């Protein structure tokens, strides 16, 4: 699970459309869903469009894991932060969220259930 | 979602087998799954057996929500604690866990993804 979560975060930071879609195809199962308080996306096309929209809203920002990934069976929980690219690793993130991810037997994500702990003020 | 989460917690505290099963049938969709670090249960029979096993392991203990339920769309996250029945509300729980629950359009749970933050030492 740790590897797929790292690549999941990387897909949020990959702004080249072709490379981003390649990562999304690797990370997500075809019929996967992503649901957070602000977005609901079903299938890779919709997930890719959601990631692209967030990137357009926060140009020059990067997502990072804020602490370790807690995983068992095929599920994981983790907290992420959004900061300007190049900001110090201890800089206060402008947004903080929390995801639970579920993977299939191939290790691809079937569902990410997202929550927000801090939104840009 | 808040109501089904309250009844979900109540089902963990209902030790009368028939009343517990009635609650479980109301709270869970037929093909639901419950997965935490120590248990994986698919369907109401297996979920009921899992709850019964935990009750047998911790007789006289009760589950309570430790803070508010954060919910959007049909998903919720919440933290629970396990304490001896009658313990003060501010007593340190012997176990603390965190669940993300997903409901269907009828408001019944289809999936609970559980994690543990503190296990009995």
User: CA-to-CA gap between the ends of chain A?
Assistant: 32 Å
**Overall pLDDT level of chain A:** 97
Helix content of chain A: 25-40%
Helices of chain A, by number, come to 3
- Largest beta-sheet characterization of chain A: 7 strands, mixed
| Oligomer class | homodimer
| Tally of strands of chain A | 7
Would you list the SSEs of chain A in sequence order as H and E? Answer: HHEEHEEEEE
Characterize the overall form of chain A: globular
Please report the two chains with the greatest interface, counting residues with C-beta closer than 8 angstroms to the partner's C-beta.
A-B, 14 and 14 residues
Strand content of chain A: 35-45%
Low-confidence stretches of chain A: none
User: Structural class of the helix and strand makeup of chain A?
Assistant: alpha+beta
Structural features, described:
With 121 residues, chain A is α+β, with helices and mostly antiparallel strands. Chain A is built from three helices and seven strands. In chain A, strands 1, 2, 3, 4, 5, 6 and 7 form a seven-stranded mixed beta sheet that branches. The longest helix of chain A has 14 residues, at 44-57. The mean pLDDT of chain A is 97. The A-B interface holds A 35-37, 40, 70, 72-73, 75, 77, 98, 100, 102, 113, 115 and B 35-37, 40, 70, 72-73, 75, 77, 98, 100, 102, 113, 115.
């Amino acid at each position: 699970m740790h590897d797929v979560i790292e690549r999941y975060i990387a897909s949020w930071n990959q702004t080249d459309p072709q490379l981003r879609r390649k990562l999304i195809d690797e990370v997500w199962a075809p019929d996967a869903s992503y649901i957070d308080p602000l977005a609901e996306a079903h299938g890779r096309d919709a997930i890719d469009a959601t990631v692209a929209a967030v990137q357009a809203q926060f140009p020059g920002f990067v997502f990072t894991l804020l602490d370790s990934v807690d995983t068992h069976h095929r599920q994981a929980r983790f907290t992420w932060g959004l900061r300007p690219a190049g900001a110090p690793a201890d800089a206060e993130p402008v947004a903080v969220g929390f995801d639970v991810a579920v993977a299939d037997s191939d290790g691809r994500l079937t569902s990410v259930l997202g929550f927000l702990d801090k939104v840009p003020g």
